[in-house]
Amino acid sequence: MSWSAHDLEPYAIQRYLGGRVAIVPLLVGSYSPDLATKWFVYGISIAGVELRAEDPARFHRDWPGMGFTHSLTFGVAVAALILFLTHSRVWALSFVIGQWLHAITDAFDTVGTMLFFPFTTEHVAIGAWAYAGHLDRWTDAGAYFSSWGFVMDGVWVVYGLVAWRVLTRSYFRETIAPADPFWRWAGRFLPEVALLAIYRASFFYGTTRWVAWLIWAHVVHDYPFDFSWGGPDWVAAEHPAPEAPR
Amino acid sequence: MNAARKTLLAYLTAAAVYIALGVILPELLLSWIVGVAYLLLAVWLVPALVRRVG
């Protein structure tokens, strides 16, 4: 589980691949594994009724469950569908890159991801920081921003700031807008200043919330930093379910 | 001040306010849609409104 990386990684890819990718499908791909799952992991209240997965980590990352959304095959399957519907190789390629980045990034926590589903349900789990989504959102935030998780996000924040040219108006005009007809379409309704804000929005969101959560966790609250592998140790981290005996 | 610096200042101000609000009300940090709507308000709609009124 990452808190800002999925907002920021697409800009790093954009910086490297330029006009060969499009930022909108990159971002959609980067968000796609959690779009249908995150609300049910943390729970949601609708008209006083609490909806939450009985076992959030299993629901989020396992099979049976929605864990297939964090596999490489899912990215390829959706990209193939995008190619079939739009005939846009740039959109299909951008989506698959974004989705793969998400699946690989989430493999760094203690639960990991079923990267090679459906060929195996085994998790790839590097285990650098604790998966704590099964507790509650606030404990998860406190744990993540006290562990290697926030350092990983910080790398993307710093990289984005170093590669600041990717956020400029001239880069948008010369590289972003020509690569994707979406911007020409959106430009019929919105002025360029609004298009630029939309283009920069995920970078803005990822960076500002990274700073805000750090302050929240360590100034407003007093969650202790712990850079032990798989930490912080003060939270009960989830791990992949043991394989059923064969 | 040239236009690029004015834009940078607008984004930095918007970021500082969003961070401050987010620390006080962390629920604001949970929604990407709220984040995008806030940015559009801060760097496009409010400045455009102020220019029109002024």
Note down, in words, how this protein is organized.
The complex is a heterodimer of chains A (246) and B (54). Chain A has helices at 5-17, 23-35, 38-42, 56-61, 72-86, 89-106, 137-144, 148-162, 169-179, 181-186, 192-220, and strands at residues 44-46, 49-51. Chain A has a two-stranded antiparallel sheet with strand order 1-2. With 246 residues, chain A is mainly α. In chain A, helix 8 (148-162) packs antiparallel against helix 11 (192-220). Chain A starts with a helix and ends in a 26-residue tail after the last helix. Chain A is 57% helix and 2% strand. Chain A contains eleven helices and two strands. Chain B is an all-alpha fold and 54 residues long. Helix content of chain B is 81%, strand content 0%. Chain B contains two helices and no strands. Chain B has helices at 3-24, 32-53. In chain B, helix 1 (3-24) packs across helix 2. The mean pLDDT of chain B is 94. The interface between A and B is medium-sized, with 27 and 20 residues.
Short characterization:
The complex is a heterodimer of chains A (246) and B (54). With 246 residues, chain A is mainly alpha-helical.
Write the layout of secondary structure elements.
The complex is a heterodimer of chains A (246) and B (54).
Chain A: H1 5-17, H2 23-35, H3 38-42, E1 44-46, E2 49-51, H4 56-61, H5 72-86, H6 89-106, H7 137-144, H8 148-162, H9 169-179, H10 181-186, H11 192-220
Antiparallel strand pairs in A: 1-2
Helix pairs in contact in A: 1-2, 1-6, 1-8, 1-11, 2-6, 5-6, 8-11
Chain B: H1 3-24, H2 32-53
Helix pairs in contact in B: 1-2
What is the SS-derived class of chain A? Answer: mainly alpha
User: How many β-strands of chain B, per DSSP?
Assistant: 0
The most extensive interface between chains reads: A-B, 27 and 20 residues
What is the makeup of the main sheet of chain A? 2 strands, antiparallel
